[in-house]
Structure formats: structure tokens, C-alpha cells
């Protein structure tokens, strides 16, 4: 009798722990705003279409903004907070200073969403949806965005400085930094494919084109024309040399041809553990698109604030 009771108790505890686990993981749901803001996705789509039509690069900028948000204490819109006399945000951290952009696009979406569904939708969810729309508008894959994140009341400039990979990172560092966020090496390589769109500043790739040897010489010469050995730090070059405003697998073709713009890009194809993955993506766009979409969903689930944690900001730039 005692053993039967013990079995029942153990079973009950197992069920309770499973329920607790599922409730934590069920707090984000694609249908979170189905009744409270049913036109949310249309509002985001329309605003992003206008922004990307005006400037194709904006799709990449919003994607990067989302990545830089999620890697610093989770996807909580902390990157959107402005510095004030009494508050230090993440916008002036090294990886974001003079490079993070698209804040005004998120402001526009937030204003429209507030007009339709007041004090309902978080800035964190708006950013997650906008990132997907930017990719789709440039020809990339779509994915189901889980929703229900809330907005942080705090930010961390120090975490932004330490948690975001640098353009000078080597492969071991990249694998380690993504692993710290629960993303494996293949997912890291897939997410790096976000560099199929967007541009980088000369100061971030100068060392690569002047000093590195694992680079196509014609490509290096082409890039030097707009990135002198000194000066021109803010001159831009496309991260994908072939189709920088089209979300496709040409980034990986560049890597195989030793035309990666950043040191960290070429590290993915440099006689290392990711060479086979890069080769696969370079010849199989469908495989890349599938893996990228799945990795985006996984990244978007990084440490969200849910329930009564955080808040729903009225203005994405300031805490309520």
C-alpha cells in the first residue's frame, strides 16, 4: 500500500512539474493578441513595407536591432530605451554606437499600434514582428512569431558590450557566445546568414581587406576603393557582394569564394567545423531558409519577460 501511495505521489509530482514547465513555455503564443489587437500583424506589415520601400537596407537594420536586443538580457526591447540624465541605456554601447538604426521605424509602428490597441502590445513584440517582416519583404522566409513578451524597465550597457559578438571574433568565440544563449554552432551559422542583407562600415572590415590572406584578391581590391587604409571609417560596403537587398544564400557563396566582408564572416568557412554547413547553405537556399527561420524562433524565445514582469511601454524610448 505504501509503495502504491509513493508511486501515485511521484506521478502527481511529475505531472505538476510538467504543467509548471508547459505553463512557463506557453506564456508566449502566436495568438496572444488575437482578441486584444487582432489587426496587429497588418499594422506591422504595412509600416514595414513603407519603411523597406523607402530604404531596402531598413530590413537588415531592424533584423540587427532585434538580434542586439535578444542577446542582451533577452528579447525585452531594452535596446530601444534612450539614455537620460539618470538612466544609461544600450544605444551607446560599442556594438550599437553609430550603427544601431531603425528606432524611428519602431516608433512609427508603436504609434499606429497604440492608436488601434492602446496600452496592449509591447515594444518587444513589435520589434520581433518587424524583424520577420523585414526579412519577408526582402524575399526571405517567414516564421510564426510567438508573442506575449513584455518590456524591460532596465537596460545594460555593460551586457551589450560583453554579450554581442564582434566583427573581429574568431570561430571559437562565435560558437561560445551563441552557445551561452542556448544556440548551437549550426544555428549560429544560420543566423549569421542575416548578413545576406545590409552593410558594414569600413572601420569594421579594414583590417580584413588590408591584412588578411584568406581573402579573394580581386574582392579585396574592390573593397579598398571605398575603404582607404586611413580615413573613410563610415564608408559602407554590402555584407553580401552579390545581392545585398535580397534575402538569399549568396552570403554563403561569398564565403566559399573567400569574399566574406568581416573577419567573423569568413571564420565560418576557414577550414573549421562550419565549412560543411556553409557549403550546404551555399548550394541549398531552402535548407538555409528553413534553418534560419527555426533559429529565429529559438532566438526570439530568449528570456522573455511575461505575466506581470516588466511592463507595456507607452513610448518605446522611455519606461512608463
From TrEMBL:
Residue numbers binding Ca(2+) 1: 69, 72, 74, 76, 78, 90
Keywords noted in UniProt: Calcium, Disulfide bond, Glycoprotein, Heme, Hydrogen peroxide, Iron, Metal-binding, Oxidoreductase, Peroxidase, Secreted, Signal
Signal peptide: 1-26
Enzyme Commission designation: 1.11.1.7
Cofactor: Ca(2+); heme b
Cellular compartment(s): Secreted
Catalysed reaction equations from the record: 2 a phenolic donor + H2O2 = 2 a phenolic radical donor + 2 H2O
Gene Ontology terms: cellular component: extracellular region
Database matches in SUPFAM superfamilies: Heme-dependent peroxidases
InterPro entries assigned: Haem_peroxidase (IPR002016), Haem_peroxidase_sf (IPR010255), Peroxidase_pln (IPR000823), Peroxidases_AS (IPR019794), Peroxidases_heam-ligand_BS (IPR019793), Secretory_peroxidase (IPR033905)
GO molecular function terms attached to this record: heme binding; lactoperoxidase activity; metal ion binding
Entry's Gene Ontology BP terms: hydrogen peroxide catabolic process; response to oxidative stress
Domain Plant heme peroxidase family profile per the UniProt entry, residue ranges: 27-320
CDD domains: secretory_peroxidase (cd00693)
Entry annotated with the keyword Signal: yes
Cofactor comment: Binds 2 calcium ions per subunit. Binds 1 heme b (iron(II)-protoporphyrin IX) group per subunit.
Catalytic machinery residues: 68
Residues that hold substrate according to the record: 165
Pfam families named in the record: peroxidase
PROSITE patterns membership: PEROXIDASE_1, PEROXIDASE_2, PEROXIDASE_4
UniProt record similarity statement: Belongs to the peroxidase family. Classical plant (class III) peroxidase subfamily.
Protein name: Peroxidase
Species: Castanea mollissima (Chinese chestnut)
